[in-house]
Specification:
Pfam family, one: IclR_C
CATH architecture of the largest domain: 2-Layer Sandwich
Shape: elongated
Keywords: DNA-binding, Transcription, Transcription regulation
GO molecular function: DNA binding; DNA-binding transcription factor activity
Organism: Harenicola maris
Helix content: 40-55%
Strand content: 15-25%
Protein name: IclR family transcriptional regulator
Length: 254
């Protein structure tokens, strides 16, 4: 493949993917200089990576010294939507069932690199204020949905993430992010949180798996004043049962 960089291990692959992930709806065009500065890559190396991405048909010149993604990337977006639609189709009946039974907000979340994002939510009919809107990225180290997804990350990737964020995490939250505690969450398949994302909000979440890997999570969020210990236990059980049914339904589609 002419112009493609030699195999240089995981570090080079990570940098190439990070270049692709620089693109977004708000940043559809990047110059080589901007990409080199953003990712702290030398210009010769950056041009080798760009040549590789051009050869793969993933980027193209935009005519003004900048680069943009090609339509080839649309296939990846369609694949992502297809996989998500299967998940939502399986999850929506379970989400409605939980909401109708306990009248609290139910959410489905996934992970992209270092962030958890809300895929879908069904609102409580009672007043509740949550930061976690559809499509909004949130940190992986706060809240029950995030912690379930964090627990399912490959250990090396998880360790690298925690090394970057732990210096800024409160001592109380740091105790929830120890390897031992995250392994307990992964093994149990669920966890709960108190006041981690929004003050006065309790949450619980359980893992949704595909191929033995945690790929999403279903959870409930509610004001603590509405949820006593008995109700928390009821909701946890409902969420865990729903996660198992969704996991089984998704597995049948693949």
């Amino acid at each position: 493949m002419t112009g493609a960089p030699k195999a240089a291990g995981t570090a080079s692959a990570r940098k190439i993917f990070n270049i692709l992930l620089s693109y977004s709806e708000k940043a559809p065009l990047w110059t080589a200089q901007e990409l080199a500065a953003k990712h702290q890559i030398s210009m010769p190396t950056l041009y080798r990576y760009l040549a590789f991405l051009r050869d793969m048909g993933l980027i193209e010149g935009a005519g003004d010294s900048s680069y943009r993604l090609t339509e080839e990337v649309v296939h990846l977006a369609r694949a992502a939507r297809a996989g998500r639609s299967v998940l939502i189709e399986a999850a929506m009946p379970e989400m409605r069932r939980i909401r109708d039974e306990v009248n609290e907000t139910v959410l489905i979340a996934g992970r992209t690199r270092d962030h958890v994002y809300c895929i879908e939510r069904i609102e409580s009919l009672q007043p509740v204020r949550l930061q976690f809107e559809r499509g909004q990225p949130m940190s992986l180290h706060r809240g029950s949905l995030a912690r379930v997804l964090l627990s399912g990350m490959p250990i090396k990737e998880r360790t690298s993430y925690l090394a970057r964020v732990l210096p800024e995490v409160s001592e109380e939250n740091r105790a929830l992010l120890t390897p031992e505690n995250l392994e307990k969450v992964r093994s149990a398949g669920y966890t709960q949180s108190f006041d981690e994302v929004d003050e006065g909000i309790w949450g619980t979440a359980a893992a949704i798996q595909r191929g033995g890997e945690i790929t999403a999570a279903i959870g409930v969020a509610a004001p603590t004043y509405r949820i006593d210990a008995r109700m928390r236990g009821t909701i946890i059980e409902l969420v865990r049962e729903a996660s198992q049914r969704i996991t089984a339904a998704v597995a049948q589609e693949f």
